[in-house]
What does this fold into?
Amino acid sequence: MYRSHKNGELRIEDISKEVTLCGWVQNSNDLGGVTFVNIRDRYGITQLVFNMETDSDLCTKARSLGREFVIQAKGIVIERESKNKKNPTGEIEINVSELTILKEAKLPPFTIEDETDGGDELRMKYRFLDLRRNPLKNNLLLRHRIGLETRKYLDSLEFIEIETPYLIKSTPEGARDFVVPSRMNEGEFYALPQSPQTFKQLLMVSGYDRYYQIVKCFRDEDLRADRQPEFTQIDCEMAFVEQEDIIQTFEGLIKHLFSNVKGLEFENEFPRMTYDKCMEIYGSDKPDIRFGMEFNEMNDIVKGKDFAIFDAAELIIGINAEGAANYSRKQLDNLTKWVQRPQVGAKGLIYVKCNEDGSFKSSVDKFYNQEELAKWAEKCNAKAGDLILVLSGETDKVRSQMNDLRLHMGTELGLRDPKVFKPLWVMDFPLLEWDEETERYHAMHHPFTSPKPEDMKLIDSDPKAVRANAYDLAINGVEVGGGSIRIHDRAIQSRMFDLLGFTKEEAEDQFGFLMNAFEYGAPPHGGLAFGFDRICSIFGGTDSIRDFIAFPKNNNGRDVMIDAPSHIDEKQLKELSLALNVKKPLNI
It folds into this structure.
């Protein structure tokens, strides 16, 4: 054995023990007659001490150690004179009698400290070094714990973990597929699964009534903080259930994770809200309900006052930023510039300050008198010291813009505390959404989502009014999971494909295997998939899932550590019967 103990476990009661430790050199401190070296592994840090008077050769050797050298040290545990209460091993140190350098190391390109001097791209390139830092180590330990507790909970409810294939048929599920050429089947391709959707439905037909897996999924889409080209889902499906059964089961999972990982208890059921209500008062189907600032529709009190912008608008919305009347003119100008950015897209911003003396100061004083502005304040439940912010325009656009502004103000005013967790079930989504560009319906969730039984009568006469038997779970403004009751009848599934613009031939080619399975005794079933990476980031108090993935891709979808994706040689291309229509290597 290279070591008798790990670097985080020795305590004051271990004094006089002879121990052997291994690890990486964190840092060293030469005080002349005495040299101190901190040695680190994933369990913690222990201080080693070398004395020039008792063993000058050993002390000289210790002074030659560089950062990140891998060493083995043997010695006796002694009590430290200068104790470090912040370090679990801070009451002891090792009086070293034997030192072995197992491997020298280059000087790292950034410091391996909690607060490092390395930029994002540099740390991504040297991810194997970045993973030695405590913040990333703790993130991966949190991820491990969440995965372990997920399996414990689902196993207790008789779910079984079943693996599904990674090389599958390309099917339209909303995002671009990653495709894999088949050498043995010339000119044909596999796709990497965007989700195991059809396979978990087939498992229900097969009689495995409670399935799950913690599974990799792949989507070739533009990246952001909460997206990666490969990500992980807690994927679940149940047979002989209705919507309420699924919600109760997986609300239980989330409560179990909060209790066992975060030590937080939720005594009451998670609140629920319809999709329509969410859009009306938050402009989002995954609202952050840690704070108020709900939308107030103001058409009835602001139109008809010769203010052309409002008179021409389809919808005018106001929000109340409580306590923000002290915003300066410069701050308000900056807010206006913020909403006018292309990412938000508003044309301008109207404000009303509710002064302490009961008067109002607005950017539209020319058009609205004090009595009229008082009605604005009443509509928005604003009091002295509050700031009313108003946007106008087309209904869908202005709701989206105000959602962005609401979240921005919530952040600016310190209302989005990462230590506070507010889950919300969002229900009754539209089954279909109309795409103006393609002039066809698209499934709001996916083509296998069942309509609400009571809305089936509308599927021919008014498809847009049909609600889906679907549900999402949002926590703190992040969609962490979503699912639905599935279609399990071939005739209804065929009708759904018709609505989505599939020809009979296309539907049969893409999904004939699933519809065929429905004819062999398909039970009523439904399920839900949680974004595992997103749950980890929420529990860890950050917005980025990248910090909870050992080896993530950057915003261009590249792994800069191993330099992937990369070119392959001509021999491989010929074996795959592929020819590239690229004149020269791409600079990405």
Observations:
- The mean pLDDT is 94.
- The first helix runs from residue 56 to 63.
